[in-house]
Amino acid sequence: MKLPSKLAMLTLAGLMASAPLFSVQAATDNQDVVIADTIKISGNAKAVVTDVRSARFALFDGQTDAALELVKKARSVFDSAILNYAMKIDAAGDFVIPLDRSITLAEDFKPTKESEKVLKKAGELAQQGNESDAIKLMADAGIDLDIRFVLLPVLKNITNLDSAISDIENKKFYEANMKLKAIETSIELEELNIEEVPQQGYPLKEVK
Fold first, then answer.
1. pTM of the complete model
2. 129-179, pLDDT tens digit by residue?
3. Is 125 helix (H, G, I), strand (E, B) or coil?
4. How far is CA 201 from CA 81, 88, 125, 159, 161, in A?
5. Is residue 150 within 8 Å of residue 25, measured between CB atoms?
6. Cβ proximity of 162 and 168 under 8 Å
7. Of all helices (H) and strands (E), which one includes residue 31?
8. How far apart are CA 56 and CA 66, in angstroms?
9. Which residues 6+ apart lie within 8 Å of 113 measured at CB?
10. Are 168 and 71 in contact (CB under 8 A)?
């Protein structure tokens, strides 16, 4: 299920079904965070989103040269993110790059004394940085988790970035801003089964 989303930081918040379980450090620019030994989070892709947002502010302030530089920078690092992190979540879908992740208890979760002990131990493991062990502990105890990834679509945003560069160079600043806004609003929140680990990283010729 795809939902509009913004990047989420997570906190250990008790036993309620809707409460996030772990505090997960998001990737900083050009830095990687391995999540649960499965899907890698791309700092490069996060840098793309940061530069896009900064470029929109620059356009608003009339700093068009700065905006153009930021968009070109975003475009240049996008290829690196594709090579190392791009994945397909279904055969017919677009390539996507993971930006962040959230873990919550399943909506129908009902706490018991035994599950409270497991969750307490899982929280301790997560705080120690052993998130993989925490997830495995809960899975082995039969605790259902909803795991969602924040994803940046690839193909449409290659087009958006290229078009924004062309628009700025041709002084079509309104159109450029709309292309950049489209990148921000294209971010999706996708539920993935933790047992289904897709391939990450594709040659550019397979993506474009």
1. 0.71
2. 777 788 888 888 888 887 788 899 999 999 999 999 999 999 999 999 999
3. helix
4. 8, 10, 29, 19, 20
5. no
6. no
7. none
8. 10
9. none
10. yes
